[in-house]
Amino acid sequence: MKNITEQLILSLAPNAAAAANGRKISSGGGFIRLYRSPDDTFFMGECKGSGKNPYITSADYIDESHPVYRCTCPSRQFPCKHSLGLMYEMMSDKKFEVCEIPEDILAKRKKLAAKAAKAEGISDTDESPEAAEKAEKKKAAAKKASNAAKKKKLEKQLEGLELCEKAVKELMAAGLGTMGGTSLSNYQQLSKQFGDYYLLGIQRLFNRLIIEITEYQKDNLEIHYDNAIDTLEKLYSLIKKSRKYITDKIENDDPAADDTLLYEELGGNWKLTELEAIGKCVKNARVTQLSFWVVYDDARKEYIDTGVWVELTSGKIYLTKNFRPLKSLKYVKSDDSTLGAADVPIMAVYPGEGNVRVRWENAVFSELKDDDFAKLREFAASSVEAEMKGIKNFLQNAMSNPIIYKLIAFSQIGKIDGKTVLRSKGGDTIALEDFPELEETTGRLEMLPDAKLLKDGVMLCGFHYNLNERRISAHPLCIIPDGENMVVRLLY
After folding, report:
1. What are the start-end ranges of the E strands in 63-206?
2. Contact between 246 and 154 (Cβ < 8 Å)
3. pLDDT digits over 86-114, tens only?
4. Is the entire prediction scored with pTM above 0.85?
5. Residues 66 and 362 sit within 8 Å (Cβ to Cβ)
6. Cα angle at 142 between 140 and 143, to 5 degrees?
7. Spatial separation of the C-alpha atoms in residues 2 and 114, rounded to whole Å
């Protein structure tokens, strides 16, 4: 029988309600009969429905990393509650009758295999030289048309950059001290135009500037002034780097996507196949999520589901990000916390520095093993001071994220002069203070059920520059205590 866990079912469910309904079907005796193939690659069930005849639902695991769930019900959810119910039946070790795999399933398997072979350029039929030449000409023509469109887009982006630079210079010339009297309507109109110029990164930063000016006009707090300066610095840096990047691509007649963060900042959207094509992927990765949160980004008008993951071979810390625009919330499935380990056949890695974004299509989930916990402890830095140079260099880069995540081995967490402080195994200290854009977690350290968790362990920290204190601080995210194979999440 397949190793099905509730974590796997929840990760596949389109929403929590579908998973709950699937569990209810299983526990309520909804399945009349259950079947499985002798090799455990195919499972099927007859499930009572609202109609006269039962629904036939199946799970095909011929490709472990790409399971296929099918059901005869009219639901548009995928997998539907009946497919999820079948997985709950499997998880509960219900008795499945052994059966032969239906002919229609074998035919579908063959069709999917042929499709995969075609995608990899493998064909079971020989093309004539004339047909091959015709296909190559068609491919070359399509590529030429695509490159022409991309070049036209780059030229349009250059125009938009000139417009943005002019606005930034005008604001800087007037001085940020005029923020309180600035008319926002002009900036809001300008921000909309950046979308027409395919400058989505510029547009987001401009929206953040508008937000800070709006807040400053409401309360006159200096923090909005500081945030506005920081946003202007990033805008100016992005304009300068983007202009050189676009100009070089036009002059070299090379409009294709390449390994740079600027591609996304200028409105590009990576496909997994494109990242694989430029070598940005990790094969057979084993990762575990140590923290998860959801924030609303007003500048983007999107909810962002973020997970922090550790790759259990290299120790690298990656991020997953799921963007859910307000205007299409009901169409985009939200991410959720994930426990245990995920074995990922191909993990696409986005360009960037620090904790870069990753993405994958399929994964097999399992519980963390003793060896996995040993590796997490092994990956942790024993000294904060030893990591500080790299942290400072990263945070000083105007194009970087304002926070970087690292594992730190600590000997104790406690109070010094009223401040919560982490003392590393190496003996140096760092103040634990919340990052403004994340949910507060520092206070939760005092609410832990066992004070022993604050001694001798590993902590996942988000290092950031604290504007109020004028220093680098660490946002606590989770604790892995020594001697116990468990993860205590402060943000999940």
Report:
1. 68-71, 97-98
2. yes
3. 999 999 888 999 999 989 899 888 888 87
4. no
5. yes
6. 65
7. 26
